[in-house]
């Protein structure tokens, strides 16, 4: 490993402070240098995390003297392809893309490459194209490992006899991250399924059978309701693997509607990801067991630093050159570490760090 996260975080802090506080390449603080426009397109405004991601990148890039063209594709791959095309036509200096559906951007990225516009894949991998330069993301396999462990620890799978009933939910099939989340979780859970300690009453084990288009709350709620009706009239479910908080909301709603959440019928273990405010409230209330925190402020710093270095003709720092192959090339990647959050640490990790205010969580 060539770098540690704290090191890059400190370096980025220094970089931003320098840009904010004094001259950038001869320009005054009140009138920063014009380094051209960076185009940013992210999947959707429907998930608060992407709004934070976009806002952080915009702020940091502007402090460095770049203009930004920040857009959201509202989960529509064709819209995102149009956005990128327009940005290329407008002569952006670099592109940062959080893909809706990687392969759909192949042609327009070929045009960006022809114009020598560097492309950074942000959080989600741009698949099926050689025309992407760097990848900034979290360790998505580890996100799944943390979710699997949240189940294993709470059911005490190491020592308890079981068997326990588990149901699996997967993320969006168009998002490359979704299989990483799933495979990471299954690396923890599969041995217990094989030994019979965890039982899938629905029999659904493969990603293709449990994936959830667009990570939709409603789809997750409907599927959970159906699972309960079909397989849990004479048994209880003890754990539900949910890859994302928005889905956990639907899953918890279905469970509550079925009578879970009382002393006689306790809530099963339910996992999540993204520390969405509604889910942190559920965690505080004991209705969702855990979530996973990806500090989007740090990811934005990594992407901004990569962009800035590329535009200065320097080589960005990476810490993984093996895990992510996009179908055309193995990516030079900077991976940040996700953090598991539950009732024992959410205040320290989310409020003390300034990610949320206490009012946001209690209100
Ligand atoms: C994933 C991302 C998650 C979550 C999800 C839904 O790609 O890694 O953190 O935001 O998309 O938008």
Automatic annotation (TrEMBL):
| Domain of life of the organism encoding this protein | Bacteria
Pfam families this protein is in? Peripla_BP_4
Q: What is this protein called?
A: Sugar ABC transporter substrate-binding protein
Q: Name one GO molecular function term.
A: carbohydrate binding
Q: Which organism is it from?
A: Planomonospora parontospora
Q: Which SUPFAM superfamilies did the record assign?
A: Periplasmic binding protein-like I
Signal sequence bounds: 1-23
Q: Where in the cell is it found?
A: Cell envelope
Determine if Translocase is one of this entry's keywords. Answer: no
Gene3D superfamilies registered for this protein in UniProt: 3.40.50.2300
Determine if Thylakoid is one of this entry's keywords. Answer: no
Domain Periplasmic binding protein as annotated: residue spans: 38-314
């Amino acid at each position: 490993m060539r770098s540690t996260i704290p090191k890059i975080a400190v370096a980025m802090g220094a970089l931003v402070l320098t840009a904010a506080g004094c001259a950038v390449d001869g320009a005054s603080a009140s009138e920063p240098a014009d380094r051209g426009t960076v185009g940013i397109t992210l999947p959707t405004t429907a998930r608060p995390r992407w709004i934070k991601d976009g806002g952080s990148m915009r702020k940091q890039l502007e402090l460095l003297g770049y203009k930004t063209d920040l857009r959201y594709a509202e989960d529509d791959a064709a819209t995102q392809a149009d956005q990128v095309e327009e940005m290329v036509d407008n002569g952006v200096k670099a592109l940062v893309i959080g893909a809706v559906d990687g392969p759909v951007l192949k042609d327009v990225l070929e045009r960006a490459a022809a114009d020598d516009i560097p492309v950074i894949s942000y959080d989600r991998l741009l698949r099926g194209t050689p025309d992407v330069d760097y990848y900034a993301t979290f360790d998505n396999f580890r996100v799944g490992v943390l979710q699997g462990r949240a189940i294993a620890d709470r059911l005490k799978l190491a020592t308890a006899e079981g068997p326990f009933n588990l149901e699996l939910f997967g993320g969006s099939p168009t998002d490359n991250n979704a299989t990483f989340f799933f495979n990471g979780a299954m690396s923890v859970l599969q041995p217990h399924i094989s030994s019979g300690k965890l039982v899938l009453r629905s029999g659904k084990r493969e990603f293709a059978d449990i994936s959830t288009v667009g990570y939709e709350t409603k789809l997750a709620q409907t599927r959970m309701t159906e699972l309960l009706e079909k397989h849990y009239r004479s048994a209880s479910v003890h754990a539900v693997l949910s890859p994302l908080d928005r889905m956990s909301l639907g899953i918890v709603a279905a469970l509550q509607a079925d009578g879970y959440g009382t002393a006689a019928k306790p809530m099963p273990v339910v996992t999540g990801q993204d520390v969405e405010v509604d889910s942190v409230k559920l965690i505080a209330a004991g209705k969702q067991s855990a979530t996973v925190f990806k500090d989007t402020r740090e990811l934005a710093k990594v992407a901004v630093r990569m962009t800035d270095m590329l535009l200065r003709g320097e080589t960005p720092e990476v810490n993984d050159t093996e895990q992510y192959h996009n179908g055309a090339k193995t990516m030079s990647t900077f991976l940040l570490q996700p953090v598991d959050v539950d009732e024992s640490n959410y205040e320290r990790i989310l409020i003390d760090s300034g990610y949320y205010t206490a009012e946001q969580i209690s209100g």
